[in-house]
Amino acid sequence: MEHEVILEPSGHRLQVREDQCIVEAALEQGVAIHHGCGNGSCGDCKGRILSGEGVQLPFMPLLLTPEERVHKQAILCKLQPRSAMRIEARVDGATELWTGTVISLQRLANTVMELRLRCDRPYPFRAGQYARIAVPGQAGQWRSYSMASLPDEGELVFHIRAVPNGAFSGWLFEQARVGDSLQLGPAQGEFMLQRDTERPLLLVAAGTGLAPIEAILRERRQRSWTAPVFLYFGTRRVEDLYHLDYLQELAISWPDLHLEVCCSDPAFSGFAGPRRLLPSVAERGPWSEHEVYLCGSPGMIEAAVDLLLSHGVSHEHIHFDSFAPSAG
Ligand SMILES: Cc1cc2nc3c(=O)[nH]c(=O)nc-3n(C[C@H](O)[C@H](O)[C@H](O)COP(=O)(O)OP(=O)(O)OC[C@H]3O[C@@H](n4cnc5c(N)ncnc54)[C@H](O)[C@@H]3O)c2cc1C
Ligand code: FES
């Protein structure tokens, strides 16, 4: 069964089946509702139900606060209609695209590749944001990757983990060559340094979640704030660790930076030996005076937020970016 869904304030009218989510149906009908992951993990598609009934499929619970739920905010990539609806939604105009040329490819670890791109014209973004990149040779397939670089550097730097049978990461590790071209959509995401507070920072990065955390760290260093910065970087396996020399050198030259590297692999002999990331964060708390930035898998983010809330950190001081698998 189909229902009419009207988007406000754009006025777009969509026909949406009961087994279809609003973002997916809109894309099929040529309307680009602003979105990121497409699977309920990033919050970029947040909108509001103005009238009508819908079913909200499961999404990462942290994306809507209790107050937002009371005000009928909804995650539109996980919302299916059950009647005619009116929905407040952000609709992107004709999407501007950039062409990025691969200028270098470097293995940072067994499973992590650094990809450097130079765009055909300036690519506006803030440290911590991500780009949607088209998967070469697969029409309509896009993946999200966070910039590890700063906007004024003239190059975009990404840290990309190999995912078994991954469309984009498989292409990157097996076929990509210097000189190849990639298409990029505009920078997205709200994971950025809060510039209106000089609270001490707690940064927690799991795996390639280090990419946007490095960008935020570097932006923070450019500011003349004096509060300390605690960086926890962790992986499960030793072979997935990367940038340790870079981070150690940074910590030596920047006395305000406290670096903890955690790897739960029994083979890890560096730093304090084998340790798990979140228990190590918990040990050093409380973090209630800190502005907290978390980046990694959805599971890590959910566990970290639970931990921090239970340690008295309030929601408004926790910022996160969840590297969920993409839905296209
Ligand atoms: C906002 C955002 C920012 C991101 N930034 C980065 C980044 O900086 N670096 C980075 O490495 N990744 C990042 N990701 C993840 C990235 O977008 C892709 O999802 C990932 O690289 C897999 O894409 P792929 O095409 O290689 O694999 P796909 O073709 O999408 O997946 C292949 C198979 O693997 C499964 N799969 C995909 N991802 C995972 C996973 N994480 N764990 C288990 N199974 C999985 C899929 O379900 C599928 O079955 C980010 C994601 C989001 C939402
Ligand atoms: S696009 Fe809906 S939560 Fe990411």
Automatic annotation (TrEMBL):
InterPro entries: 2Fe-2S_ferredoxin-like_sf, 2Fe-2S_ferredoxin-type, Beta-grasp_dom_sf, Cbr1-like_FAD-bd_dom, FAD-bd_FR_type, Flavoprot_Pyr_Nucl_cyt_Rdtase, FNR_nucleotide-bd, MRET. One of its GO terms (molecular function) is iron-sulfur cluster binding. Residues 95-194 form the FAD-binding FR-type domain. Pfam families: FAD_binding_6, Fer2, NAD_binding_1. Its cofactor is [2Fe-2S] cluster. Residues 3-93 form the 2Fe-2S ferredoxin-type domain. This is CDP-6-deoxy-delta-3,4-glucoseen reductase.
